[in-house]
Amino acid sequence: MSYHNPVLLKESVDGLDIEGDEVLVDVTFGGGGHSKEILKRLGEKGRLFAFDQDEDAAANVVEDNRFELVKQNFRYLKNYLRFYGVKEVDGVLADLGVSSHQFDESTRGFSIRFEGPLDMRMNQGSDLTAEKIVNEYEEEELVRILKEYGEVNNARQLAEAIIYQRELGRISSTNELVEIVEKMVPGKVRNKFLAQVFQALRIEVNDELGALKDMLEQSCEVLKKGGRLSVITYHSLEDRLVKNFIKKGNFDGELEKDFYGNPKLKFKQITRKPILPTKEEILNNNRARSAKLRIAEKI
Which residues contact 218 (CB under 8 A, 6 or more apart)? Predict the structure, then answer.
C-alpha cells in the first residue's frame, strides 16, 4: 500500500498557478505526492520547502536540489523559512488532516479499525497522547473536547462513561475506548459516532485547529502580493476556519472595516465555492469523500 494517495492533486497544484522559478511551500508533505507534482512544474531555479512533523514522512524525501524537507509542525512556517533565508514565497499548499499511512498504521492509534495504543500523536516526540486525555482530563475538559472538536451530541454522558470506566482501570487501547463508546450509540450510526470521538481526541492531542490558525496567519505574512494559497480540508471545523480567513480576513467570520469603511481583506477568493473531488476520485480513493479545496490570492 502506498504511504498516501494525494487528494485533489491536479486541482490543488493548479491552484498555485506555477509559472516557473517560484519559491513554494507544501506545509503537509506526508507521502510527497503534492510535492512531486509541484516539482514537475517548477523551473530549474525554483525552490520547494516542505513541512512535516511526522518522523515517518522523512522516508519519502525527494532527491532534488530544489527541495528541502523541514521536519517541523507547519505552525512554525515563518520562523523556519527565515532560517533558510526566505522572507517571501509565491505559493503555499496544505492538505490537512491525517494521512492514509497514519490511519493504516495500527501502532499510531488513529483508526477505529485496528487495536493499538491510544496515541494519536502526529509528532511522536510530543508528550500529550489520547491515553493521557482519556485517563487524566477532568470531566468538563472531556465534555468541551467532545462537543467542540467532535460535535458529539451526548458529550456529557460519554464523558461520565469514560470516567466511570477509568476508575475501574486505566484505558490504554483503541479497542477499550471503542467498547465504552459503542454502549452510548445506536448501531446504525456506530462508525460515524466513533469517528467523531476519535477526531475530537486527535484534534486535542495535536492542537490541530490552533496550528491551522497559526499557519494561515503566517502564510498571509510570507506570501507575496499575488501569491496563492491552496488548502484542502476534511471536516467542517477546518473548513470553517479556512473559509472565514479567506473571505473575511479572520477566523470569527465578522468582516472588519478600516476607518473609512473599507473591508480589511487579506485575500481574493479564486474559488467562490470549494472544489470537490469527482465521483471517480472518491471511488478510487475513499479518503477524498469529504475533501474540500479552497484557493485564494494574496491582495
Answer: 75, 77, 78
